[in-house]
Structures are given as structure tokens and as C-alpha cells.
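Work Package 3 (structural annotation) set out to generate three-dimensional models for the target panel prioritized at the project kickoff. During this period the team completed the workflow that converts sequence records into C-alpha cells, so that structures can be stored uniformly alongside our sequence database. As a representative example, we reproduce one entry of 242 residues exactly as it appears in the project archive.
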Amino acid sequence: MHAATERLLKDFLDRIGPAVPLVALWAHGSLGAGDYRPGRSDLDLVAVLDSPVTMQRWRDIKAVHRSLDQPLAGLLHCSYMPRQELDDLAAEHVTWAHERIFRRPVTAVTRRELHTAPLRLYGPPPGEVLPPVSDAELEAFIRSDLRDFWLAKTRARRRWLQEVWVDLGVLTVARATVTLREGRLISKREALEVAAGLGAPDTVVADIRARRYGAPPPVLSRFRRARLARAFVRSAIRKALA
């Protein structure tokens, strides 16, 4: 593991352990799948707690995250799941992400990632604590996410001028397509090759690869990139849902 990342995770565990009734702490996403890029990838964590988050613990969680002052701390995200709510896919859990605290569900994709490619940081592994996600539940979530979130986001052009929307949109729809077709999860690295096979413009794929993996960037204006990426995402979603 990257040295700075390892130091941050150790520091976080040392601080969060005394602040909450911690049962387990796991990493998923790029870190679990072996596709982690320091400074580029988020550090996606899930903590299981022995009891629900009280208002005081809400404040304590917020204070712990704000106290992290290491270079990669802004990329560390964590959802806090009381063990009494682990089997409820719709439950909204206290989450720290993007420098703020709020509530959101731990999705079927995240839960499946935790069963297939987890990194155990503390406590028992996910297979001993977290109920599995069925193929039907996973498919239902992905279809809803593509239809109700991502397709809706393609209606507005301006947001696609931002790199984050281009990268996430193209990679998400490629990953979702594979899961709907084959029932498996793939990494972002694999998703770049899939996106190309689905018809994503070569310049857009190269643009994403350059930011994530340090490849030579193509000559591409952000306005043309936005137009191409948005058009691909809209088309690929409609094909995936058909």
C-alpha cells in the first residue's frame, strides 16, 4: 500500500476507534480492487457500529474527520452503519464525504464490493457481518441509478465541462453495463477498455486515462470533451436499460 495512504488509514483508525463503538472497518472501491491511485482515488470506507449514531457521536465523527490533516485526508470518505440496520438497503447512514457530514444509503454496489473485494482494516471481515446482496437487488439498484440519476444528469450540459462528471459518467456506465450483462463488478481500469468497446470516443477515453494513470493527454478542448462524453453516456445508458 502507498505509504502516505497507510499512515492516513492508521491515523484515522486510531482516532475513530475511541470515538464510536466500532465493530469493523473496511475499505472498498479502488483500494479493495487493487486499482488505487494515490491522490486521485477516493479512500472509500465503511464502519460498522455496535449501536446507532447519537447526536453526540455525530459531532464526534465530524470532529475526527476534521482533525485529519494529512495530504490525502480530503479523499477519505466513510459511512457508519449500525449493526441493527445492516440488512436494510434503504437505510440512510451517517457519512463523511467531500468535506461534509450527511446521511445516505450504503448501496447494493458498495455492499457487493465489500463481499467480493474488501480490505479489512479492523474487526471481522464483511462476510461474517454484512448480509449478502442478491443479483436481483444489485440489478434493480443499477437500473434505478442509471435511469433516475445518471440519465437525468445528462439533461444539463454545463456540468459536463467538469472533469469529475466526464470521468465518473463514462466509467460508471461502462461498469454498470458489464454488471447488468454478466453479473460481475469491474475496476475503473477495466471500465476504460469496456467504454472504448461500447463506442466511447477514443479522445475521451484517452483523456480519462491521462488523468487517472498519467498517460499522455490528447489535444481536446473541454467543450468538445463535454459534448462527446455527455452524448456517449446518454446513448450507453439507453442501450444498457433496453
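The CA atoms of residues 125 and 147 lie 33 Å apart.
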